[in-house]
């Protein structure tokens, strides 16, 4: 192939005028989040398509987060083994590891929230609706910088995902949970392209 089939610009392997076809993942991203289904895009013509795909991606992510937020607080995170009277089925152990820059008090609050959300999402995706024996550990800041110091912390959240069978959860929970499960495929798709 000598020219981009989409915009007909010459393809050049390297040098100042370098212009190559974009990677498969970028192409799939455009196919998934726009109506454009061209077989190839090159570095010269991809920008507009990529921008539309990114905007659609962000919009969908925002909507998904909004739905999740409406009931993430309904999923109990409990640091003891088993509250009195609870009947539940154990699904599995869960561990979530996250990295963050060192943050101030407000930043820490936000970080906590996103950590809680991360482990709750795991619970829902595993078919659970509560987390028992929840534990949250933060390392001391450690330097990941090269010449300029840059400090990071590592957060590890663990717990046991359970399915509480009767009477222990908010009545809104089942409705909210169904809403979330309805968009689970969309969530998985968004996750697939989250590192693009
Ligand atoms: Zn092109």
Overview of the molecule:
The chain has 196 residues and is of the alpha+beta class. It has a domain at 74-168: Hypothetical protein apc22750. Chain B (Translation Initiation Factor IF3, 2-Layer Sandwich). The protein contains 5 helices and 4 strands. The chain has helices spanning 24-33, 46-69, 105-125, 172-182, 184-192; strands at 88-101, 130-138, 142-143, 151-164. Strands 1, 2, 3 and 4 form a 4-stranded antiparallel beta sheet that branches. A hairpin with a 7-residue loop joins strand 3 (142-143) and strand 4. Helix 1 crosses helix 2. The longest helix is centred in the N-terminal third of the chain and has 24 residues, at 46-69. The protein is extended, with a radius of gyration of 22 Å. The mean pLDDT is 90. The structure holds zinc ion.
- Form type: extended
Q: What is the fold-level CATH name, i.e. the topology of the domain at 74-168?
A: Translation Initiation Factor IF3
Identify low-pLDDT runs.
none
Note the total helix count. Answer: 5
Beta strand %: 15-25%
Query: Which hetero ligands occur in this complex?
Result: zinc ion
Please tally the β strands and state the result.
4
Q: Spell out the helices and strands N to C.
A: HHEHEEEHH
Biggest beta sheet attributes:
4 strands, antiparallel
End-to-end CA span:
25 Å
Mean pLDDT: 90
Give the helix level as a range of percent.
Answer: 25-40%
Radius of gyration: 22 Å
Question: Any idea what the CATH architecture of the domain at 74-168 is?
Answer: 2-Layer Sandwich
The CATH C-level class name of the domain at 74-168: Alpha Beta
Looking at the chains present, what oligomeric state does this protein adopt? Answer: single chain
What structural class do helix, strand and pairing data support? alpha+beta
């Amino acid at each position: 192939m000598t020219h981009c089939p989409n915009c007909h610009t010459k393809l050049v392997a390297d040098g100042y005028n370098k212009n190559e076809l974009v990677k498969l993942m970028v192409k799939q991203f455009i196919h998934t989040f726009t109506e454009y289904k061209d077989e190839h895009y090159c570095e010269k013509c991809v920008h507009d398509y990529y921008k539309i795909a990114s905007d659609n991606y962000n919009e969908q992510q925002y909507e998904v987060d909004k739905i999740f937020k409406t009931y993430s607080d309904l999923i109990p995170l409990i640091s003891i083994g088993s509250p009195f009277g609870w009947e539940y089925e154990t699904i599995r152990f869960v561990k979530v590891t996250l990295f963050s820059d060192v943050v101030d008090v407000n930043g820490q609050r936000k970080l906590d929230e996103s950590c809680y959300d991360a482990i709750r999402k795991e619970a829902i995706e595993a078919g659970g609706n509560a987390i028992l024996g929840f534990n949250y550990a933060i390392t001391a800041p450690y330097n990941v910088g090269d010449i300029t110091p840059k400090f990071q912390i590592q957060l590890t959240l663990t717990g046991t995902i359970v399915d509480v069978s009767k009477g222990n959860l908010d009545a809104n929970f089942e409705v909210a949970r169904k809403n979330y499960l309805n968009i689970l495929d969309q969530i998985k798709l968004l996750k697939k392209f989250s590192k693009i």
